[in-house]
Amino acid sequence: MPRIRQSRKKEIDISTECSTKLFAWYDRKWTQEALFNLLDNAVKYSPQGGRIRISAAATDYYVRICVEDQGCGIHEEALTDIFKRFYREPGNEDTEGLGIGLYLTRQIVNQEKGFVEVRSRKGEGSIFSLHLPLEKR
Prior knowledge:
Structural class: alpha+beta
Oligomer: single chain
Number of helices: 3
């Protein structure tokens, strides 16, 4: 089932907050794939009636795009493992997926001279941030 229908079925509220004056260096196709992976996970792991917040802002050297969810969260000791190819956190075996989305997201963003950051607490949700090099105008 496409993720947009899944978010509607789960009655997830998705909101965005973004400045219209952001400029970053990125590959449109691949950055879209990386962002889709984060949104896909946010929908998969969010509860019925949950909330997903997408925001973008400039920092000193990067444009930061955040995807914040109220999902199941990630154990602190697994925060580095989640970016390994085919890694699935124990207890999530019944959730669809192959464990490759976050691996690909990190590879894509690293190729664009950026980085991925994650903050999460088990049972409270996660915030994944893509940092893409700022294009000075």
